[in-house]
Amino acid sequence: MKKVVTLGEIMLRLSTHGFQRFVQSENVDVCYGGGEANVCVSLANYGLEARFVTKVPKHEIGQSAVNALRRFGVDTNFIARGGERLGIYFLESGASQRASKVIYDRAHSAIAEADPSDFDWQQIFKGVDWFHFTGITPALGSKATDITMEACQKAKEMGVTVSVDLNYRKKLWTPEEAENVMSQLMKYVDVCIGNEEDAEKVFGIKAGGTDVESGQIDHAAYEKVANQLIERFGFKYVASTLRESYSASDNGWSAMLCDGNKSYLSRKYDVRIVDRVGGGDSFAGGLIYGLLTEKPLQEALEFAVAASAMKHTVPGDFNLVNLDEVETLVKGDGSGRVQR
Amino acid sequence: MKKVVTLGEIMLRLSTHGFQRFVQSENVDVCYGGGEANVCVSLANYGLEARFVTKVPKHEIGQSAVNALRRFGVDTNFIARGGERLGIYFLESGASQRASKVIYDRAHSAIAEADPSDFDWQQIFKGVDWFHFTGITPALGSKATDITMEACQKAKEMGVTVSVDLNYRKKLWTPEEAENVMSQLMKYVDVCIGNEEDAEKVFGIKAGGTDVESGQIDHAAYEKVANQLIERFGFKYVASTLRESYSASDNGWSAMLCDGNKSYLSRKYDVRIVDRVGGGDSFAGGLIYGLLTEKPLQEALEFAVAASAMKHTVPGDFNLVNLDEVETLVKGDGSGRVQR
Amino acid sequence: MKKVVTLGEIMLRLSTHGFQRFVQSENVDVCYGGGEANVCVSLANYGLEARFVTKVPKHEIGQSAVNALRRFGVDTNFIARGGERLGIYFLESGASQRASKVIYDRAHSAIAEADPSDFDWQQIFKGVDWFHFTGITPALGSKATDITMEACQKAKEMGVTVSVDLNYRKKLWTPEEAENVMSQLMKYVDVCIGNEEDAEKVFGIKAGGTDVESGQIDHAAYEKVANQLIERFGFKYVASTLRESYSASDNGWSAMLCDGNKSYLSRKYDVRIVDRVGGGDSFAGGLIYGLLTEKPLQEALEFAVAASAMKHTVPGDFNLVNLDEVETLVKGDGSGRVQR
Amino acid sequence: MKKVVTLGEIMLRLSTHGFQRFVQSENVDVCYGGGEANVCVSLANYGLEARFVTKVPKHEIGQSAVNALRRFGVDTNFIARGGERLGIYFLESGASQRASKVIYDRAHSAIAEADPSDFDWQQIFKGVDWFHFTGITPALGSKATDITMEACQKAKEMGVTVSVDLNYRKKLWTPEEAENVMSQLMKYVDVCIGNEEDAEKVFGIKAGGTDVESGQIDHAAYEKVANQLIERFGFKYVASTLRESYSASDNGWSAMLCDGNKSYLSRKYDVRIVDRVGGGDSFAGGLIYGLLTEKPLQEALEFAVAASAMKHTVPGDFNLVNLDEVETLVKGDGSGRVQR
Amino acid sequence: MKKVVTLGEIMLRLSTHGFQRFVQSENVDVCYGGGEANVCVSLANYGLEARFVTKVPKHEIGQSAVNALRRFGVDTNFIARGGERLGIYFLESGASQRASKVIYDRAHSAIAEADPSDFDWQQIFKGVDWFHFTGITPALGSKATDITMEACQKAKEMGVTVSVDLNYRKKLWTPEEAENVMSQLMKYVDVCIGNEEDAEKVFGIKAGGTDVESGQIDHAAYEKVANQLIERFGFKYVASTLRESYSASDNGWSAMLCDGNKSYLSRKYDVRIVDRVGGGDSFAGGLIYGLLTEKPLQEALEFAVAASAMKHTVPGDFNLVNLDEVETLVKGDGSGRVQR
Amino acid sequence: MKKVVTLGEIMLRLSTHGFQRFVQSENVDVCYGGGEANVCVSLANYGLEARFVTKVPKHEIGQSAVNALRRFGVDTNFIARGGERLGIYFLESGASQRASKVIYDRAHSAIAEADPSDFDWQQIFKGVDWFHFTGITPALGSKATDITMEACQKAKEMGVTVSVDLNYRKKLWTPEEAENVMSQLMKYVDVCIGNEEDAEKVFGIKAGGTDVESGQIDHAAYEKVANQLIERFGFKYVASTLRESYSASDNGWSAMLCDGNKSYLSRKYDVRIVDRVGGGDSFAGGLIYGLLTEKPLQEALEFAVAASAMKHTVPGDFNLVNLDEVETLVKGDGSGRVQR
C-alpha cells in the first residue's frame, strides 16, 4: 500500500448551526480540520496509509484533534505534543447572496510555535512515497518555515515525491514574505496545485482573464499561468480547481491539469453546496491519489474533481467519501438516485 | 366514509441529521415507515378510514411503530403482536451529486416471520372498499407470500378493489422469484402501479426508451409497457411516476395513468428535495384516494402527483399533507407564498 | 447619530426545525419578532439609535422579548409593562411547492389591549428624527388605533418624519375597517411602503397587471398605483418590494420607489430562501436608513433591496446584517465566496 | 374492557431544555397535557378504553393535541373542533432551591369558550363505566361550568361512577366562586381526590397540622379533612397525595385513602425528580384504575402511589408507564437495576 | 438607582452537553462570562444600573460577548473595541466523583493586551456608586495591572466604593507576583471577598483549620484570616463563601462576613449542582447589592448566599435570578414547589 | 508497553435523550459498545496497546463501529469484515424508582455468525500479554463458542494470561448451556470476574446472603463463592463488583478480590449515576490494568473500583477516563472541585 505524509496545522472548527449567523448562535458544532489534515483523511479514506504530522497541546482539546484523525484511520504516531493552544476557526455558513464567513483565532498555536526538533523526518519518511504540504504551514511563522524546509529537503533526499498547494492566505503573510519563502521551497516540489490568484499573489505571475467574481473562467489564461509556473520551478504537473461562484449556495466546479506539454480540462459539476470548506483540499487529495496510483492524467484529474465535487455535500472539513463513491461519480452517475 | 386496508411492513427508520454521512453521525432521528404504512397514513390524512395490517414485536420499539400510526389516525386494531424484531433501515440524505443511501437491516422481522394464522382476513376486510399491497411484502419470505396471497384471495372474494405497487427490491428476491410470485398475485389486482424498471425486472416487459440516469423520459415507451401489463393481467388501470433525477437535490416529478384505451399525463413539478423517501408511496396514496372518490382519471392523476410532489418537502416517510393542501396545489398554487 | 422610533407588536415566534410540519414537531425554535420590531433591529444594526415602543406582560416571556431587542442594541426604555399575554405566532417553513405556514395566536396581547396612557409620546419623540409604524398596529383594536393616531399626531407636531408599511392583514380587519382607519393616519405619513395588494385592499387602488401567483411583474402597473397613492395622500415617496414567488424555496426579489416624478427600479436578486419572514420589514429598515442618511434615491433603494435580499438567508425575524455587508452586496459582490 | 371518560382542557406545553431559565432559552420542547388528559392517557396505558372530551381549534396546533392523545391510544372521536386557540403553558424546570415555574397563557381557549351544545353526553357516556373531571374545568368560565354540570348530571343518570380531583387553581377563580360551583357538582361525585389545601380553599374545611413548606405531614389532620368531606358530600372515597417538598430536586411521595370508616396510608417513595408536572394526575389515574378493577383499597392506593412515583421520572405531562412496570414497583422492586 | 461599574475580562465559554467529556463532544453550548461580567449581570438583574468595562475584538465573536451583556441590561457603552482575540474557556461538567474541568485558552486576549488609554475613567465613573474588580484582571498582564490600578485610583478619588474578589488563579501568576500587585491595589479597596486559599496564596495569611477537600469547615479559622486582612489593609468588610464539596454533584454552601468587630455566618444550603461556575461571582453580586442598598449585615449576607445558592441551579456563567426570587429564598421557601 | 487483546461483540447502541422513555423518543444518541470492546477502550485510555477482535459487516454502520474504536486508539487491524448486520441495543435511561431498560436486537450479528477461519490467533496473539473475554461471546452461538475456545487454547499455548468476566445473560442461553460451555473454557482462565449471581447461574455455586434488591451486601458470603470458584477451576484471582442499588439514580459501588488466601475489600463510593452501562466492564479494565502493571492487590482493586465509579458519570459504554484521573480519585480526591 502506498504511504503518504502531510504536514500542517489541525484546527478546532466551531461552526454555527443551519444558516445561523455568529451573533445569534448559542450552540456550535465541533469538528477538526485544516488543509493538510483534510488531504490526509481523504487519502486514508481511499485506502492509503496516511500519516499526519503536526503538534498539538497536551490537553483534551489537543487529544480530540488527534482522535478525529485516528477515527478515520490516519496514522497519528508522529504528532508532537506540547505548546499552548490549538488554533481555532469559527465558521458561519452563508447562503444565496450572503457569503460564508471565517474568523481565525489561530495565532500562538502549538504547531506555529513548534520547534524543528519536535520532528524526526528520517523516521517520519521511512517507506513513504509522497509528501504534501501547503503554503499555509510555512506562513505560520519562522519556525514553521524552518520545519517545512527541513521536511522538504529530507523528502527530496529520501526520494519522496513532493506536492504543494500554494493556498495563499493574506492574513498570515504579505505577498513579499510569501514569495521569499515559497520560492525556496518550490525547488523540492514535483506537483504544484494553485489557482491564478495564488500564482499572482505568491509569485507575481499573472495572465489575466479570470474575474473571480464574475464567475467567468478563461481556460487559456490559466494554462499560461501553469506553464509559467512549470518553466520557473520545473514542476512536473501544475493543477488548479476552477470555481465559478454563482452564489454561496451554488457553484460550478471543475479543474485543469497541465504537464508542460498538454492541458487537461475536467468535466464541470454544478454543485448545490452543503459545506464548501475543504473543497480545494479534497481536490488535492484526489489528485495525489490519482497520480500515486498511476491513473492516466485525464482520469486522475476527473477523479480529483469528482471527489471534490462530492466534498461540497459533506458537513465538516473532511471529505468523507470512499473510492467506490468517487468512481461511481466519475463514471457519470450524478443522478442522485437513492442507493438502496 | 370509504375504508381502506393496507398490508405490509413498518420499519424503524434511523436517519442522520442535516446532510451528515453515516460515519460522522452521533445522533439520529427516529421515525417509522414502510411502503404500505406510508400509503395508509396518506389515506388517513385525506380523511378515509385506513387500517394497517402487519406484525410487530411486543416490546416498546414495536409499540412505538404502532403509536406512530395511531398518531395520524390509522386503525391499528388488526396489527398482530409477537416475533423477534422490527425491521430497521438507516438513511443518509444525499445532496447534489451525492446520492442518499439506505442500509437495510430488515431480515428476521416480525412480519417477515409472521404466520398466516396471525391475521383474520374475514374480520379485517369487513366493510372495506379497497386493499393495497406492494411487491415488498411477498418478497419478505414464503410465509409473507402466503399471507399476501390469502389477503388477495379474500379481498377478491369479498368484493374489495385491489391495488399493488410492484416495487421490485433486488435485495429481497431475484427477478425469477419475483415473477413467479407476483404473476400469481396479479390476477387479484385491479390497479397496478409500477414503473418501467419494475415491469422489466418482475415481468420481463421492456419497451426501451427511458434511461433512468439520463433523466430523459419517453412517454410513448412507458405507454407500451402499461398496455402490455393491462393485456397480460387484465388490470383496470396501470400508473407510474416519472422521476427525472437531475441530482440528489432536484428532481422532475410527474406521472402517467393508462386505462388500456387512453393515457393520461400529469403536470410536471420541479421539486427541491427535502426527503424523497416515500415519494412513490404518496403517489399511490393519492391515486387510491382519487379513484376511490371517483374523480375523473386526469384529476385523480393530478391529485396523486401533486400529493407526491409535496411529499418530497416533508421529512420522514409519511406524507403529512391534508386534502386542502393537495387540492390547492392541483389548482395551481405552487408559488410557495406564506400562508398566514 | 440619527434617532428612530418604531411602534408595534413584538411576538413570540415558535418555529419548527428544518422543514418539519407542525404535526410532527416535538421541539420548536424560540425567537421574537414583529414588523415594527424587525425594522427597529435593522436600524440598530446599521448604527442608528433605534427605540422600540410596545407593551409586554410583566412575566419572563415578556422580559425575554425585551431582552431579544436589547441584545441587538435597541433602546427598550419606553416599553410599557403589563397586560395579559404576549402575542404568539407559529411558523412552519415550507419548501418547493409547499408554502410556509403561519398560525397566529395574537388576540388579547398586551399591546392590543394597551391604553394610550401607557405611552408618553412627548418623551418618546424627544430628539427623534423618524417614526415608523405599519398597518398591523392600528388593526390590533380600537385602543391600538388610538395609540397609533396619537403617536402620528405627536410625531408630526414635533417635526418627526413618518413612514408606514401598509401591511394589510386580512385576519385582523376588513378592507372597510382598514380604509377607514388608515385614511386618517395617512395624512401624517411622509413615506409609504406598500405593494399593489395592500393598495387595493386598503384603499381600493387597483392598476391591474400583476398576478402575484404567476410571478410576472408589471412595473408600469405598480407605478400607476404609486402615483395614485401620492396624489391621494401627498406622500413624498412610495415604495414597494416586488416579489416573484417561483416556489417556497426560490424567489426573485427587487423593488421600486416613486417620488411622484420618477420611478426607480432596483436590481433583481434571485434568492435561495432560508427564512423569508421579515423580508419586507428588512426592506423598510433599509429604505429608512437610506433616506435618513440622505443617499440619492436610486442608492437608497438599492441599499434597501440588497439588505432585504440578505434577510432571506438569515433565520429568525430580525435582519442580522450590518452596514458593511449590505454595502458590499450593493457594490455587486453576490458571489458568495468565503470571507476569511 | 372498562371504559372511562374524562373531560377537560388539553394545553400546548412549551418547556425549556435542561435546567435553562425562560430568559435564556432559545428552543423549547413541545408536548401536550392537562389534568384530565393526563388521567386519560394513564388509563389508556393500563389497557382501558379511555375517551377524552374537550374542544380544540381546527388548525394544526389543535390537531397536534389530538394526535398526542391518539398516539397513546386515547379515543378522540368526541373532541369538538373550533374556537380560537389552544391554551398554552410555559414550563421552566427548577432544581435544588430553585422552584419550577409555570406561566399560564390559557385564557380564551377553545374549551374555555366551548358551548354545551358541542357535546352529546348521551353518546359520549354510552357503555361507559367511569367519568372523571377536575376542579380546573368548571373554573375555566361559566360555559365550562355548564358543560361540566351537564356531564355530571348525565353521568349520574346513566349510572356512571364519577370522580373529581379538586385541583384548586387560584389564578382561575376565587375560593368563593369555587365553593359555589364545586358544591353543586359534588353531589354527583363518588370519589373525591383533593389535598388539605384544596379542601380548605374550596370548601373552607381546615384541620390544621400540615405545613406544606416544612415538609412535615400530619396524617391524622388529613384524615379529619377527609372525613369532613365524606360527611358533607357523601363521597364513597376521599384520597390525597402527600408530597413532602425537600427541594425542587427531591420529594417524598405517599398518599392516603379514606372510606369514612378507615384510613389507608401508602408506602412512601423518595423520588429524584425528572418532571413532577402531572404527578397528581397520575395518582388519580392509578386510583381510578385500582378502583375500577376492584383491587382491595390498600392495593388500589399502593398502585396509585407507585404509578405516580414513577411519573416523576418521565418527561412530559403524561405518565408513560404500563401495568407491568407499576406492579413491579408495587411488589417492591424500586432498586432501579437495569432491565435487560 | 444605584450605579455600579465592574472591570474585567469576558470570555467565550464553550461547554459540553449533559455530562459529556471533552473527547466525546461534537457540539458545544456557547455562552459568555467571566468573574466581573458575572457580577455585573447579577446587579443588572437586581435592577441597578450596571456598567461593564473591558475590551473585545471588533469581529462578531467580540460583538456577541457585548450582546450577551446587553441582553440582560448591562451598559456596554464603555467597552473598547480592538485587539486580536476574545479569551476562551472550555468547560466539561463533572458529576459525582468526577470533577468539572476547565481548559483556559485566554492568553493574548483583547483585554489582556489593552492599553490604559482605551479607558476614560473620569467618564466611566461619572455618577457611579460602586466599583468592583477581581484578582484575575491585574493578573492578565502588566498593562492590565496598570489599567486596574488607574481604575482603583480614580474610583477612590471620585468617592466610589471599591470591592475586590481576590480570586487567585495559579495559571496566571505566582503568589509572589500576586502579592506584589494586589498589595498595592488593596489600599483602594473597601470590601474584600476572598476565601482562605486566596488569603494564603496572595497574602501569605494562613490560619489553618479548613481542609478544602475534606469538606470540613472551621469558622473560627476563617474569622482569624478575615481579621488579619482587615488589620493589614483596613477593609471595611471581609467576606467569603464556604463551600463544602461533597462531590461534583452536591455541595454545602454558606458564607461568612466580618466587619472587624463581629462575624456573621449565613444559613447553609445543600445544593444539587446544575452549573457551579460563577457561584462565587453571584455571591459577590449579591453582597454588593445588599451593601449598596444598605441592608443590615446579616441580611446582606443572607441575600448574597441565597442568590449564589440559586446560581448553582442555572446553566451558564450568569446568575439569571431576580430580586423577588432571591428574597423568597431568603425568607425560607426552598421547598421547590412549582410556582404557578 | 503491555499488549492486550479482547474478543467479543461490538454493538450499535441507540439511547434516548435525557430521561425520555422509548415510546416518546424521536431522536436517539448513537454510540458503539459491548463488554469486551469497553474493556479494550479502557486499556487503550490507560496507555496500553489494546487490540479488539470481532467481525463487523462491510457497510458504513460496521465501519462506524470500527471508527469508534480507532478514535480512542484501539488497534482494529484484526477485525474481520462481512456478515449481515451489527447487533443493536436500545437503551432507555431510568431514574429514581424507574429502572433503565435495555432492548436487545442482536441476533444474526456478524460476530454471532462468524467462522473460526475469520481469525488467525497466531497472528493476533503475537507479542501479546493478556487476553480477555466474557461469557457473552460464547453465548452468541456455537460458532462463537468455537471461536472463543480456539482463542483460549491458543492464548494458553502462547503464554498469554487469560481473564474472563462471567457475565451471564439469560436471554442468550440457559444455565445448563452456560455451565456446559463455560466449564470447558474456565480451564484456560487465570483471572475470573463474576458476581454471586453469575456464579450461581453459570456454575450452580451459591453461598446465600446477598439479596440483590435489598441492597445489603454480605462480604463473607461472596468470599465463600470466590473460594469455591478458585477451588473448582484453579483461578489465580477471583473478583467481583459489589453494587448496592439504592435506586436507578444512586448506587453504592465497591468490589472484592480474592486470591484463595486472602480477600481484599475496596473503598465504597456512593455514585450519582449518569450512565451505568459498562460499569462492570470498566472494573474489568481497571483490574486488568492493575494486575498487568503489577500493582499490589489492594491497589489494583482500588484502581479498578475508582475507575469504574468514574464510569458511572460518563455517557456511553466506554470509560473515557485516563490514568491521572483514576489515580487522583484513588488518592482520595472525590470532592469534585473544578479542575482549572
UniProtKB/TrEMBL annotation, chains A, B, C, D, E, F:
Protein name per UniProt: 2-dehydro-3-deoxygluconokinase
Family to which this protein belongs: Belongs to the carbohydrate kinase PfkB family.
Keyword NADP: no
CDD domains: KdgK
Keywords for this protein: Kinase, Transferase
GO MF terms held by the record: kinase activity
Superkingdom of the organism of origin: Bacteria
SUPFAM superfamilies membership: Ribokinase-like (SSF53613)
Keyword Kinase: yes
Carbohydrate kinase PfkB domain sequence ranges: 1-316
Species of the source: Tindallia californiensis
